[in-house]
Amino acid sequence: MIDCKALEPEIVTLRALEAPPSPWRANREARLITDNAQRLLCQDDRVVPVEYVDRGDVLRYDAGHCLWCLIDSTDDRLRLRVLRCRGALALDLQVGVDDRLVDQLHKQRRIKEPTAEAARAWLEDELLLAPTIGLAGTRALARADNTGTRLTLVGRRHEADLRERDGRWIIVRLAPARQHDSELTLLHGALAIVDASTAAVLRSPAQRQQFQEYLDAHGDYVELWRRYAAIEWGQATEAGRTLSVLRYQDREPCGEEQLRWRYAVDPEQARAFMERWEALARDSKLPDLAIEACAEPPAWMLNAEQTKGIDSGRPVVGERPVLRDGWLILSYDPNREHEAPPPSGLLCLSIHGQRKAHERRQQALERIRSSANPMPQLRLLLEGQPVPTRTDWRLEKALSRQARAAFHGEPTDMQTRALDLALNTPDIAVIIGPPGTGKTQVISALQRRLAEVYPDPRSIQYQLLITSFQHDAVDNAMGRIEVFGLPGLRVGGRRRDAESPDNDRLSGWREARLAELAPRLDAAIAAEPVFAALRGLRDATTRLRIQPLTPGERAELAREIDARLQDLAETHRLRPTAATEQRWRDWLAARPPEPAIASTRGPTRRLWRQAIWSLRTSTSAFADDGAAQCLRLLDLADRRDQDLPDGDCTSLEALAMTPVPSDRQLADLAALRERLLTASRPDLRPPVLRNVLDTEGCRLLDILLGELDAHLKRRPEWARLAIIGDYLDDLRLDPTRIEQAVRAYTTVLGATCQQAAAEPMRGLLSLDPKDGISFDTVVIDEAARATPLDLLIPMAMGRRRIVLVGDHRQLPHLLDPDTEKSLEEAGELTQAETKALEDSLFERLVLRLRRLEEEHPGQPKRVVMLDTQFRMHPVLGDFVSRTFYEAVGEPAIRSGRSATDFGHPMPELEGRVCAWIDVPAHSRDDRDRRLPAGSRIRAAEAERAACEASRILDACPDLSLGVITFYAAQRDLILEHMGDHSLAERHEGRWRVRPEWARDERGAERLLVGTVDAFQGKEFDIVLLSIVRTDSPLRGEDRGLALTRKYGFLRVPNRMNVAMSRQRRLLIAIGDIALARAPETAEAAPGLAAFLDLCERAHGRVL
Question: How far does the signal peptide extend, from start to end residue (predicted)?
Answer without folding.
Answer: none
